[in-house]
Specification:
The protein is of the alpha/beta class and 443 residues long. The chain has nine helices and 21 strands. The N terminus and C terminus are likely disordered.
Length: 443
């Protein structure tokens, strides 16, 4: 039964569906800089948490403005959120926004001396922000409704280009691209948005490798932060926007501050706009955020039935290869020696939110893989997210291994891994669609 928006929506649906959201800034102390190559802060990194409860299961989704999340930090964040929000840790799903302009939080045993002290200061700042955001989400819990919509935004471009020496990084207007914007809107029963989840296939890397005129590198939430910030300003205090990076392994921002260029003969070069490139972050963020708002305004929310929230964890074995010893060794080539390395385990997590599903993986899938899942999913309202519950570098599609792209070379996965993972995702989605799995079960 379709339930109209309004104060009686929850009662009419026969359930009490609750939602709350919170966000906190990650306060890296000024005394820590320089850290991990960064000299100062351009804009604040944030941690965002949305909490959902259908009366049977409670699920927490968190997005942290980091490039990636190592296992040690992931476990700590899941524990903190689980304890603060009374959520089973297996029902806590955490993603990195994948901004390229954030210091890494390395495992504590990896560093020593001053580097270890600075790393610990950043780690504590991240954990404090996540914990407080979760507490805010609990305080904001109230009867709520869900809805889904999809739009289109031209803020990304395929980054694989053919140079005189082989395939490399750049901007290919004719290459495969997923420009769809998936939006989940979470409203209270008065129709006020509690949270918007934005799923879009683009790396948050407008400022990647760009430096200021004096040579400094600045911390920034980049495109993801600009887009979510735009949405939150449009709706005002109380609304939290979370950016879930899609299958963006080959999807770069349409314009970048430090850009790859080609001349008429296919020769490569780099050009940095320095501080002038900061405007690109704001403009592209505004474009993506405005489309998310436009889509959100057209979403009709309803209360999902009891028992339709679930988090399903599964995994699949995929072919592996030896990753490059150093990224500095990579360059365009027409002859790359892929070296098989047995198999690797690829975790998959599926989050069901009523008739909406989110399929998440650690690896950076390419856009064609994400499109394949969405086009063949039994759920019309399907999102694909990467950098979920950890990070595992690129998992390019088979064609990229044949072309010898950057993503294929810079991977611990071998040709065929992406196709194996997408098949597993679709098999899991069909299983979930046909049976009301309980949270945390393994199909």
């Amino acid at each position: 039964m379709t339930v109209p928006n309004g104060p009686l929506a929850v009662e009419a649906a026969g359930t009490t569906f609750l939602a709350g959201a919170g966000k906190r800034g990650i306060g890296i102390p000024a005394s820590v800089y320089p850290v991990d190559g960064f000299t100062a802060e351009r804009d604040r990194l944030r941690a965002r948490v949305v909490l959902l409860d259908d009366g049977t299961h409670r699920v927490a989704l968190a997005v942290v403005d980091l490039t990636s999340v190592f296992d040690e930090l992931l476990d700590e964040m899941k524990h903190l959120i689980g304890r603060a929000a009374d959520v089973a840790e297996e029902n806590v799903v955490i993603a990195a926004s994948h901004t390229f302009c954030a210091p890494h939080v390395f495992p504590t045993a990896r560093l020593n001396g001053e580097a270890a002290a600075k790393n610990e200061a950043v780690r504590q700042a991240v954990l404090a922000a996540v914990h407080r955001a979760a507490e805010d989400a609990v305080r904001q819990l109230r009867p709520a409704r869900l809805g889904f919509g999809r739009g289109v935004c031209h803020a990304n471009v395929n980054r694989n280009v053919l140079t005189a020496d082989g395939w490399w990084l750049g901007a290919d207007e004719s290459g495969p691209c997923d420009r769809s914007v998936g939006v989940v809107r979470v409203d209270d029963t008065e129709g006020r948005p509690i949270a918007l989840l934005i799923n879009y296939a683009v790396q948050s890397s407008v400022l990647h490798e760009s430096v200021t005129q004096d040579g400094g590198r600045l911390v920034s939430a980049d495109l993801a932060g600009a887009a979510t910030g735009h949405v939150e300003r449009q709706y005002g205090e109380g609304t939290v926007a979370l950016f879930l990076i899609g299958a963006a392994g080959d999807q770069a921002p349409y314009l970048t501050a430090n850009r790859h260029t080609l001349d008429r003969d296919g020769a490569r070069a780099r050009t940095d706009a320095h501080e002038a490139g900061h405007l690109l972050v704001d403009l592209l963020g505004e474009r993506l955020g405005a489309e998310a708002v436009r889509v959100g305004e057209g979403i009709r929310t309803t209360a999902p039935a009891e028992g339709t929230l679930a988090v399903i964890h599964t995994h699949v074995e995929v072919p592996a290869q030896v990753p490059p010893a150093s990224l500095s060794d990579l360059r365009p080539t027409r002859d790359y020696p892929y070296r098989p390395n047995g198999t690797a385990d690829a975790p998959v997590v599926v989050v069901r939110l009523g008739d909406i599903v989110l399929a998440g993986v650690q690896a950076e899938l390419s856009s064609t893989s994400g499109l394949h899942v969405k086009e063949n999913s039994p759920f019309p309202n399907t999102m694909v997210a990467t950098m979920v519950d950890g990070a595992a570098k690129y998992m390019a599609d088979a064609r990229d291994y044949d072309r010898i792209t950057y993503g294929a070379m810079n991977s611990r996965y071998a040709k065929g891994a992406a196709e194996t993972v997408t098949a597993k995702i679709l098999d899991t989605l069909h299983t979930v669609h046909n049976k009301p799995w309980q949270g945390g079960s393994r199909p």
